[in-house]
Design goal:
The chain is an alpha+beta fold. It has 9 helices and 8 strands. Helix content is 35%, strand content 15%. A 4-stranded antiparallel beta sheet has the order 1-2-6-3, sandwiched between helices. Strands 4-5 form a two-stranded antiparallel sheet. It is globular and about 50 Å long. It binds cobalamin and iron/sulfur cluster (2 copies). One iron/sulfur cluster binds next to helix 6 and helix 8.
Amino acid sequence: MRDDAAVGMPDQIAAALEPYGLVQRGGFVFDEGNASSLSARGFRSVVLIGHHGSSIWPHFTGWRQDHPDVVDPLDQWSKDVLTAVAAEFDATAVFPSDRPYLPFQQWAIRAENLRPSPLGILIHPLYGLWHAYRGALLFDRVLEFPRNGPQPHPCDDCQGKPCLSRCPVHAFSDGGYDVVRCRGHLASDEGQACLHGGCLARLACPVGREHNYNAPQMRFHMDAFAKG
Ligand code: B12
Ligand code: SF4
Ligand code: SF4
């Protein structure tokens, strides 16, 4: 285990993640007396871990060459990497795919002051819709985090909200996201543009376009999503 000092721990974690293209996405201390099952299990703090754009892609694809038969390779890569990092810091790693689902987006809203886009995905002022979470580290002690100031929410001033009008099958409406309609389109001949090039609604967003996933990563995520 590394230095146990609570102050500076998030920075040490960031340094340990850097070789994998992963980034520390902020964290917080669970509220005192919170009745959630995590507090009941003695966890006091959480640090979120994820990626911006295609930062993980070279590391993940290198690992994948050595693990060609793994069924959910990105999940397994995340587990391999983050379980080892967690051990260095005497923490417990948890993952977005763990059941029952952990509230990763609620955690992210608190950790980085992000807000949801009309598509349901959280939007980041710099990275737009091109970021996600690969796991989180839970600590049985109180860590110190820098105070988060208010963040601009790009959707507030977005002219015309193009993300809401680009889906060819109108999967986004006031009623939410129609995943059946979206997957139906991806399975059709007309849906090949989305399947190969990425979600047209997500791509319509002008924020953080320079962080769009590279073509192989875009295809990987769309394939995984289309398969369900
Ligand atoms: C189940 C699930 C889905 C389901 C249902 C989503 C839903 N209606 O909640 C489906 C299959 C539809 C889905 C789709 C996608 N998802 Co999804 N999904 C999840 C998962 C595994 C669990 C969600 C959940 O129930 N959490 C439990 C509740 C208690 O947590 P919560 O934080 O309180 O829940 C929030 C969400 O439910 C959110 N929400 C509500 N409606 C919608 C609709 C959509 C489309 C999304 C993404 C979120 C969302 O609001 C809640 C409050 O903030 C999460 C990981 C996780 N553990 O949270 C990823 C997660 C939310 N998904 C994510 C992503 C990126 C996607 C996709 C874009 C996949 C892709 N191809 O890359 C697509 C969207 C497709 C599109 N065209 O836009 C990311 C979002 C990252 C971000 N920037 O916010 C997450 C966090 C996974 C990750 N590894 O980072 N997803
Ligand atoms: S297109 Fe506009 S409203 Fe839609 S996610 Fe991007 S900034 Fe937000
Ligand atoms: S992937 Fe295509 S069909 Fe699905 S929501 Fe995005 S634009 Fe619509």
